[in-house]
Design brief:
2 domains; binds coenzyme A; UDP N-Acetylglucosamine Acyltransferase, domain 1; alpha/beta; about 240 residues; 5-stranded parallel beta sheet
Amino acid sequence: MGYIRFIKEEMQVIKDRDPAIKSNMEVFLYPSFKAIMRHRVAHWLYLHKHYFLARWYSQRTVRKTGIEIHPGAQIGKGLFIDHGNGVIIGETAVIGDNVTLYQGVTLGGTGKEQGKRHPTIGNNVMISAGAKVLGSFTVGDNSKIGAGSVVLSEVPSNSTVVGVPGRVVKRNNIKVVSPCDELDQIHLPDPVKNDIEMLKRENRRLAEIIAKFLPEAATMVEECEAITEKDEEDNR
Ligand SMILES: CC(C)(COP(=O)(O)OP(=O)(O)OC[C@H]1O[C@@H](n2cnc3c(N)ncnc32)[C@H](O)[C@@H]1OP(=O)(O)O)[C@@H](O)C(=O)NCCC(=O)NCCS
């Protein structure tokens, strides 16, 4: 019964997200369908500590679909992997609901972290062809990662990230202006003037300190001179 429901859900997911599908039967040809169905078995084996069997089963899936999902990865409902070839999902990756991945996506580690090493992907996220998301951070709900991006840090919800390394270019559908774009060409900062102002301030502060200690210093000088004179008289 669970299997039939899974197939119906998958058919709907694929029909909703791939305009290329023409008939329900085609769903059985999708690598995404095979990979996710087989991952559920591999994940069950992993959770029951049958690690070798789990890896063996998932490696057979790689050969059949070109999609490598580590049996430990946690996957929500409605994942769709379009085309699929070259998709790699690491052991500690967590994927929310209604996520779309395209070919060549890696949800991987940087090699610098222990324990949780792979990303957590929120709900309704789209990760475009060839994008690499590396590290144990979170990609917020409803975000999009552009094709070919390399994302190395947290992505806020409702954002579009593009480039290498990935940077947020849109948030809540509003373009994020980079410092280069908003550079005021007329009121440019003057570092030399700033340094002179800073030196003037420091000079004033030192002058105040010296003025405060000046009477005390004069008394000390007088005392020293008196002691020296007395010593000279004693020596005579
Ligand atoms: C990122 C993407 C999803 C668009 O998201 P969006 O929120 O609609 O963003 P926009 O198209 O408004 O682009 C925002 C900015 O990012 C730039 N941009 C978009 N995608 C980019 C990418 N992959 N790499 C670098 N820059 C990119 C745009 O040129 C635009 O720059 P501008 O503001 O200076 O003009 C889309 O460009 C993309 O990468 N799609 C690939 C989908 C895919 O993998 N298809 C494979 C099917 S087989």
